[in-house]
TrEMBL record, chain A:
Residues 606-677 are annotated as: Disordered. It comes from the Eukaryota. Its main location: membrane. GO terms for cellular component: endomembrane system; membrane coat. It is found in: Endomembrane system. This is AP complex subunit beta. Residues 644-669 have a biased composition (Low complexity).
TrEMBL record, chain B:
It is a peripheral membrane protein. This is MHD domain-containing protein. It is found in: Cell membrane; Membrane, Coated pit. GO terms for biological process: intracellular protein transport; vesicle-mediated transport. It comes from the Eukaryota. Keywords: Cell membrane, Membrane, Protein transport, Transport.
Length: 677, 428
């Protein structure tokens, strides 16, 4: 039988029509298969509706399934025709002794999704919810949300029936599906439907042991959203969940981990918490080396959340996150990210040693990310500084211009110098950087170079000449670079007034007419300042930030107040993208009324007060707490390093500035005087 | 939950398309397919979210299985489900899943898809179980007409022991155990072990009558410590983590670490485990790369096997990376064969049989072409593959396997051990 016939002739539908109406059963069956094949490739075969449903008379179950598939696909296009099959369905549901046929009928019935057909469905559905056969019951339970979605007004009695079933159902599989089905209805309805009491919880816990893997996931997932009433209850539920950590289905394990992690907050026994952590850790690590990369990836994406709240779980486990040569790149990137987070003042040596290897890999993005990570570690831990810088310098010695990662090198070195100005004294990093300074061509890298030249002009040979080159090409540069060239140019001028007077003139001339208001504004400010009192400019621009606080910011991936909501949703799609459900899905409400606009990637300026859940585990992990790894976006994406720096300085010297402005205003006639200085 | 499932071929054509919820259109999927074929990124990232619609996919050789959803589902669950679905399909097609099979048996696949998901919620995903009532060309009439048998079937489907049907009978009761370990090893250029880990699995193949109650015992340190005073022989090994087939009673294991179960009929992976302590590394590798002088590079390699000399490693393969501009390689070795393979960019050294406690070496002279001279060559790691029967790198042993059944029959039990090279890497 042809599946993708290329030579579809016009008469095909007619041919099928004839076959469907043929008296020969086999011929009919073949014809129906063909119809389904056309449907799959997207060809419209809805015209055959009448002929197809006529074939329902036969009791052949394979054929029945195909016809049902067809009906489901076209029922909404042909609601009037679909009404003709209702009788068939009802007959199947009510009269058939075969539980598979009953279940099949009720399942398909629910998928018709034609509002006016649903009223015929309610009664048989009610019967099926009470069917003797658990398989039919299970199917009926899942049929309720289907009907509810299309015609909620028909359902109140059904929902009540479900609630009753929740109390008396004894089959574990039916119970698990019941929970899932009621949750689906809750999502559509927006109202709570499942009412838990200790007896039902007890039943659910028993059901975990008895139902198949998916059922276990439904129940665990649901219980993870429940808030236990006290420590005792939390303890009982955790105890029943623990065995699931050894299930072969990674999702069962993961859901169990999620549930236990959430309930830990409710325990008031510190030792128990510690013990539980010891049990969870190996299980989680097994998931991290899972042999299906896609699953490994989803788990990795959730690690940062766990790491933020439970650093204790990965104590001494950096090795788990080492990248292996043949891994898919999306896994490598995640691992790299986590390695920086997990790095602390104890294990930085191990991490840096590993990162050093990655520098030689072939994937340029990966190398670039590695350089970035090394830079971050250098800034985060003073102890790691020397080692990290020596790796970067080594890289700089052998690097080639074509290597994209060299751009990142400039950016990172700039940030490191900003924090540790005296670094230039201890090694030859400056000299080496300057020797490859022409490699910089990305705006951010160029601006980093411009900053380095301005800052360390006196230690770099030919710094003025280099700056001259930058000034020559000023107009062609990106705004970011222009701003930095301006500041650095002024710095050079302060440092070598006589040597650079021509340079500064050229610079201000080309900058004052810039199309960019930022550049223009800054030009004028410098201009006026220079023309008033170069001494002030010196204080202002050559101001040396000591231990600037912007490098010690503790920026976490998740805001502390979101942690619990995030944890409850661990493993979900929103969590995978490091967002809360209501941020990804507009129609979803988050429990706990957590409705505020929360932007996660944004840095939180304030020092955070440890929240309740962190206090609980504080004893175990004061140390880790203090070394909360930083997030990607803290030091690296601060939008324009240059202006930030200056803003800070400006703030620091706010009074000065105001005075200056006043002075300027008073001495307007002095504006052009800079020529004479 | 899951809104739709599709099977897609390499060209981005939809082979199978099944909708479970109404919130997705075929159009969205065709658009996504086009995108996926167009860019590498879309193809490789397992999950992509476009405007509140999530596309989750896995690739099984040339076939992409794609699930879509508009709700905030558990991603790992969807992925695991897709993998299980691929396993189900493979079990119907004798281990293959390719475009031809799918086209030929699309009716069967639709039947499967009808059963594994309902309203996008995963249901039965056990291949053995599905085989009982879904078969190519329809199940034999007997089972579909006999109501008593049908009752039994639905009872099994929804029951506590859903993986094993009632009333199995075998003339000869047999049971096969395979312990397969793969060693993941990462050694730094300075010859220190960065990571050594064994990921193992215990595969069970059973042909047993009735509903046998089984118990398996390994030399698990925690278990043995409990049972008796430790003598030299009975000191067990410590297992970091074990994961069990659904048939194993987990609460019992959690309580006293005994592993009891009623096995599924036929083949299953009973246990998978991970061990990171005291790994017996089977091969020690010494490698030396000379400086490149006059477009010539010399590589010397020494391999020593560190297992008993009555055991043999088989199909040993060493991948020695060489620069891209290699022209040819002259190799000299006493054991096996080595030659330069362009597509692998390596000298591949194959040894059919490698005795235990034995040392052998390889010497290669690599002639390089003159192109891209100043490009520094970053060496990928050296990789090894091997199989060593009757050896476990972790030292794991099965101590007993008890089978108890009402009928009290005798069971023939067979056991095999095998250690394989997993990610067995030496950095250079």
């Amino acid at each position: 039988m042809a599946y993708f016939g290329n030579n579809q002739q016009r008469g095909e539908l007619q041919e099928l029509y004839a076959d469907l109406n043929d008296l020969n059963f086999e011929k009919k069956k073949e014809a129906i298969k063909k119809v389904i094949a056309y449907m799959t490739v997207g060809k419209d075969v809805s015209q055959l509706f009448q002929s197809v449903i006529k074939c329902l008379e036969f009791q052949d179950i394979e054929m029945k399934k195909l016809i049902y598939l067809y009906i489901v696909n076209y029922s909404r296009q042909k609601p009037d025709d679909a009404i003709m099959v209702i009788q068939n369905f009802r007959k199947d549901v009510r009269k058939s002794e075969n539980p598979l046929v009953r279940a099949l009928a009720i399942r398909t019935f629910g998928c018709l999704r034609v509002p006016k057909l649903n009223e015929y469905l309610i009664e048989p559905l009610k019967d099926c919810v009470q069917d003797d056969d658990p398989y039919v019951r299970k199917t009926a339970v899942l049929c309720v949300p289907k009907v509810f979605e299309v015609s909620p007004e028909l359902c109140p009695a059904l929902l009540e029936q479900l609630q009753k079933l929740l109390e008396k159902e004894s089959n574990a599989l039916v119970l698990a599906n019941l929970i899932q089905s009621m949750r689906e209805i809750e999502v559509v309805n927006g109202k709570q439907l499942i009412v838990l009491n200790p007896k039902i919880i007890q039943k659910l816990l028993l059901a975990i042991d008895e139902c198949m893997e998916w059922g276990q996931i439904f129940i665990l997932d649901y219980l993870a959203t429940y808030d236990p009433v006290d420590s005792k209850q939390a303890e009982i539920i955790i105890e029943r969940t623990l065995p699931r950590l050894s299930h072969i289905n990674p999702t069962v394990t993961f859901c169990a981990v999620k549930l236990i992690l959430k309930y830990l907050d409710y325990l008031n026994n510190g030792d128990l918490v510690k013990n539980l952590c010891k049990k969870i850790s190996p299980s989680l690590i097994s998931l991290l080396s899972w042999n299906q990369p896609e699953i490994q990836y989803t788990i990795l994406r959730n690690i940062s959340l766990i790491l933020q709240k439970f650093p204790i779980l990965f104590e001494n486990e950096v090795k788990v996150f080492f990248c292996s040569f043949n891994e898919p790149y999306y896994i490598k990137y995640e691992k790299l990210d986590i390695m920086v987070r997990i790095c602390d003042s104890k294990n930085f040596h191990q991490v840096l040693n590993e990162l050093m290897i990655y520098i030689n890999e072939a994937d340029p993005h990966f190398v670039r990310k590695t350089i970035k990570s090394i830079g971050k570690i250098a800034v985060m831990y003073d102890k790691a500084l020397a080692e990290a810088v020596s790796i970067l310098v080594e890289f700089a010695k052998n690097v080639q211009q074509t290597n994209e990662a060299v751009q990142e090198l400039f950016i990172q070195m700039q940030i490191i110098y900003r924090k540790n100005r005296n670094l230039y004294k201890t090694n030859d990093s400056l000299k080496i950087l300057f020797s490859i300074i022409d490699y910089a061509n990305e705006p951010e890298a160029k601006s980093a170079c411009a900053w380095i030249i301005g800052e360390f002009a006196e230690f770099i040979p030919k710094s003025v000449e280099k700056m001259g080159e930058y000034v020559d090409n000023f107009i062609l540069e990106d705004r970011l670079v222009q701003l930095q060239i301006l500041t650095s140019g002024v710095k050079l001028y302060i440092k070598y007034p006589s040597l650079c007077s021509a340079l500064i003139q050229q610079l201000i001339n080309s900058a004052k007419d810039s199309f960019n208001p930022d550049v223009r504004d800054r030009t004028y400010i410098y201009w006026r300042l220079l023309s008033t009192d170069p001494e002030i400019v010196k204080n202002l621009i050559c101001y040396v930030a000591v231990g600037s606080s912007q490098f010690q910011k503790d920026i976490r991936l998740w805001e502390t107040k979101d942690l619990i909501t995030a944890l409850e949703n661990m493993g979900s799609i929103s969590n995978l993208f490091h967002k809360l459900p209501n941020q990804l899905y507009k129609n979803i409400k988050v429990r706990n009324n957590n409705q505020q606009e929360v932007k996660i990637y944004k840095a939180d300026e304030k020092q955070e007060v440890p929240s309740k859940e962190q206090e609980i585990k504080k004893d175990d992990q004061i140390q880790q707490q203090q070394q909360q790894p930083k997030q990607d976006f803290d030091l690296l994406n601060f939008e324009e390093p240059v202006s930030n720096n200056n803003n800070n300085n400006n703030n620091n010297n706010n009074n000065n500035n105001n005075n200056n402005n006043n002075n300027n205003n008073n001495n307007n006639n002095k504006i052009d005087v800079y020529d004479l200085i | 939950m899951i809104s739709s499932l599709s099977f897609i071929n390499q060209k981005g054509e939809i082979l199978i398309y099944r909708v479970y919820k109404d919130d997705i259109s075929r159009n969205e999927i065709t658009q996504f397919c086009a995108k996926m074929i167009a860019t590498k990124e879309n193809k490789e990232f397992p999950i992509i979210n476009i405007d509140q619609t999530s596309f989750i996919h896995i690739s099984i050789k040339d076939i992409i299985i794609l699930a879509t959803t508009k709700t905030d589902v558990n991603v790992a669950m969807v992925l695991e489900f897709l993998y299980q679905l691929s396993k189900i399909c493979k079990s119907y097609f004798q281990g293959n899943l390719d475009e031809n099979c799918i086209k030929k048996s699309f009716v069967l696949i639709y039947e499967i898809l009808d059963e594994v998901l309902d309203y996008g919620i995963p249901q039965i995903a056990d291949p053995n179980l599905l085989q009982k009532f879904i078969q190519e060309g329809g199940v034999q009439q007997e089972t579909t007409i006999n109501i008593e048998k049908l009752r039994q079937l639905t009872f099994t489907l929804t029951g506590v022991v859903s993986w094993r049907p009632i009333g199995l009978y075998y003339e000869k009761n047999e049971l096969y155990l395979d312990i397969i370990e793969s060693v993941n090893l990462l050694i730094s250029a300075k010859d220190t072990v960065l990571r050594a880990e064994v990921v193992g699995s215990i595969e069970l193949k059973s042909k047993l009558t009735g509903m046998p109650e089984c118990q398996i015992g390994m030399n698990d340190k925690l278990l043995m410590g409990k049972q008796q005073k430790q003598t030299k022989q009975t000191i067990g090994i410590s297992i970091d983590d074990m994961k069990f087939h659904p048939c194993v009673r987990l609460p019992k294991f959690d309580k006293d670490r005994t592993i009891t179960f009623i096995p599924p009929d036929g083949h299953c992976q009973l246990i998978s485990y991970r061990i990171s302590e005291n790994i017996n590394i089977p091969f020690k590798v010494n490698v030396f790369y000379s400086e490149i002088i006059d477009n010539k590079l010399e590589i010397r390699l020494k391999i020593k096997s560190i297992y008993d000399n009555n055991i043999y490693g088989t199909n040993v393969l060493v991948k020695v990376p060489v620069p891209k501009n290699t022209v040819n390689a002259i190799t000299a070795t006493a054991l096996g064969k080595a030659r330069y393979e362009v597509e692998e960019q390596s000298v591949i050294w194959r040894i059919k049989k490698f005795q235990g406690d034995f040392e052998t070496s390889l010497r290669c002279e690599i002639n390089l072409g003159t192109t891209n001279k100043d490009q520094v060559w970053s060496k990928p790691p050296l990789k090894m593959e091997f199989q060593i029967p009757m050896f476990t790198a972790s030292g794991l042993r099965v101590r007993f396997l008890k089978v108890m059944e009402k009928a009290g029959y005798k069971t023939n039990k067979w056991i095999r051990y095998l250690t394989k090279g997993g990610e067995y890497l030496h950095r250079l």
